[in-house]
Structure formats: C-alpha cells, structure tokens
Amino acid sequence: MPIDTAIAAPAWDDDLPGRYAWLRPRLAGAAACTELDFHLPWIDAIRRLKAQRGALILAHNYQHPLIFHGVADMTGDSLALARAGREADAEVLVLCGVGFMGETAKLLSPEKTVLLPAPEAGCSLASAITAEDVRRLRQRHPGVPVVSYVNTSAAVKAESDVCCTSGNAVEVVESLGVPRVLFLPDRHLAAEVAKATAVELIAWPGACEVHEAFSAEDLRRWKQDDARLKVIAHPECPAEVCAEADFVGSTSALAGWLGRHRPERVALVTECSMADNLRADFPAIEFVGACQLCPHMRLVDLPRVYAALRDLTPQVEIEPAVAGRARRALERMLDVPPAARR
C-alpha cells in the first residue's frame, strides 16, 4: 500500500505487534509480515481516532486488505455499505471507496457526516454517463423508464426512475411491469440481465475498465491448465468472459457461492483485492489466476483515512434538489420486496 508522505506518520510502539497479533492470520497470503509491521502505527492511530470520533469505517470489497481487515467496521458492496451506514448509530461515516459510493452513503444518511478519504477516486462506469445524457435518452425514448446501476453519480440517479445493483437488477427491471427499459450505464451487466428477463433492455455503452480487461481466452487457458479450477466472474465482465465462467454474480453472490461450494481452487474474475480479502474467510480455498487492480480504489490508503478522521474532511455534499430526486430512485429500489431479490 502506498503511503502519503505529506501526512506525518504516527510513532512506533513496541506493544503494537502483540496488540495486533489477531490481524496477522487475517492477512495471511495478502500482505507480508514486514508490510503489516510498517503499517501498524497507522492502523492503531485510526482505530483510536475513530473511537474518539464515534465514527464508523465502511470499506468496499475492493479495498486494500490492510484497510479491509485492519480498520474497517463494515465491509461489502457499495449498497450494503450505504445501508449499514444508514442503520448504524454513528454520526460520522468514513467511506473507503470511490466517489459514487460516498454519494450513495450520503443519500441514504443525509443527516450524517460522510467522509471520503480520496475524493478524486472516480469510476469508469460512473463517468461513462452524465445527467444530460439521461435527459437526451428520455427524449429519444419517451415514456420508457430509466434503470440506473448504483455505479452512477447522484446527478444521474436523480434523472432515473429507479436504481439497481448487480445482484437485484433482474428483479428491479421486472418490478416496473413494462416491456422496455433504458438500462445504464454498463452494457455488460445489461447483457447478463437480458438473459434472465423478457423485458427489452436499451443499454448505454459504458463499461468497467477493470472487468473489461479480462478475456475469454484468459479463462479458457486457466481451465485448460488446471482441470480442478473453478472460475467465477462479476457480471460487469464482457459476455464472452461470463460465458466461460462456472458462475456469474455480484460481489456478495461470489462470496456466497464460495461458501456453498468450497472449491479446492478458484479464479475470481473481478478486482484483485476481493480475492485477497476473502482468503481470511476461506483459508482452505486456493485463489489463483485472476488479477486486475482498480487504480481508483488504490487512491484510498491508511494515511488518508487517518487524515479524514482527524480533520473531518473531505465531506460528501450533494445539492439538495439533486439529492432528493436521487434518493427517491434508491428508495424505489429498496422497495422491491426482499423475497424477490436474489
């Protein structure tokens, strides 16, 4: 993990290795012992400061293992984090993830202080479409409802009828009871959803730069080299990649599949850090093969988490008129009956 040298490092304490002995097995295979020792002062300082602030640290599945295991109170996908933040008693939320995730947390917890340690951390999907693009789409397809993936800006959500996640997209699309929807911004997720519903999806041509880097040839080569290998993929991957996978699902669905099937060896076709973070929960599974790092997620590091807690900045702010409309799109998604969700 890179260190921001502009932020003074906390002092070393000889008691730290013993105090954090519980963390070493959580990081086995994901971080070297020497790396952990180097970062222990930061981990300790953050844990002390969040207690003083009464803050909750929320870390996305793609965050570095030192953040995910070392300082996070809640981990998961972007919507799970936003919902956890809303339900928690904490008045200060630190969102370790990218920009749209901070906005989603703020939309569901408007009365709370939401801190985003790396406000410049973007997302290729969120930047693939603008609110103006959505307005033009509506003009081109009058009367067709807009379903927006949560990986979008608050401004885009505000122009949408309802949001969805990769795990509930089919249910959300079908809940509208219409023959056609505008689905944005991920064309690959749209292709996966289209396989499971009779609703026609008019897709926006966006894509995730991390998941699009995988190829079907990668998966075929891995499986040819190892007949025992299971390959599971995120639906943001291209259709030909998903077709080669043994299972396709959201980040939470991928973890659930591992828990049910317990393969001997698995290649996780998504961002690298998720496999690193899952090793602690599945020590008997060997994670091999796949690795694509998200450069935006890597902008979040321990010093920046510490600085955000220390200074209570940068705070996520959303223009009220935009926030109200975007919140309605999220709440409409949450109104889809739980029994209908995968």
Tell me what you see in this structure.
It is a single chain. By secondary structure, the protein is α/β, with parallel strands linked by helices. The protein folds into 3 domains: 16-123 and 297-311, NadA-like (Rossmann fold, 3-Layer(aba) Sandwich), CATH 3.40.50.10800; 126-207 and 319-340, Rossmann fold, CATH 3.40.50.10800; 211-287, NadA-like (Rossmann fold, 3-Layer(aba) Sandwich), CATH 3.40.50. The chain is 42% helix and 14% strand. The protein is built from 16 helices and 12 strands. It has a 4-stranded parallel sheet with strand order 2-1-3-4, sandwiched between helices. Strands 6-5-7-8 form a 4-stranded parallel sheet, sandwiched between helices. Helix 3 (33-53) runs parallel beside helix 15 (302-311) and helix 5 (78-87) packs parallel to helix 6 (99-108). The longest helix has 21 residues, at 33-53.
What's the short version?
The protein is an alpha/beta fold and 342 residues long. It has 16 helices and 12 strands.
Percent of residues in helices: 40-55%
For the record, what is the CATH homologous superfamily label of the largest domain? NadA-like
CATH class of the largest domain: Alpha Beta
| Largest sheet report | 4 strands, parallel
Q: Structural class of the helices, strands and pairings?
A: alpha/beta
Q: What is the succession of H and E elements?
A: HHHEHEHEHEHEHEHEHEHEHEHEHEHH
Distance between the termini: 35 Å
What would the CATH topology of the largest domain be? Rossmann fold
Assess the beta-strand content as a share of residues.
5-15%
Shape: globular
Q: Which architecture of the largest domain would the CATH scheme give at its second level?
A: 3-Layer(aba) Sandwich
Q: Treating each run of at least 4 consecutive H or I residues as one helix, how many helices?
A: 16
- For the largest beta sheet, what order do the strands appear in spatially? 2-1-3-4
- Tally of discrete structural domains: 3
Low-confidence stretches: none
* Strand segment tally: 12
Radius of gyration: 20 Å
- What is the average of the pLDDT values? 93
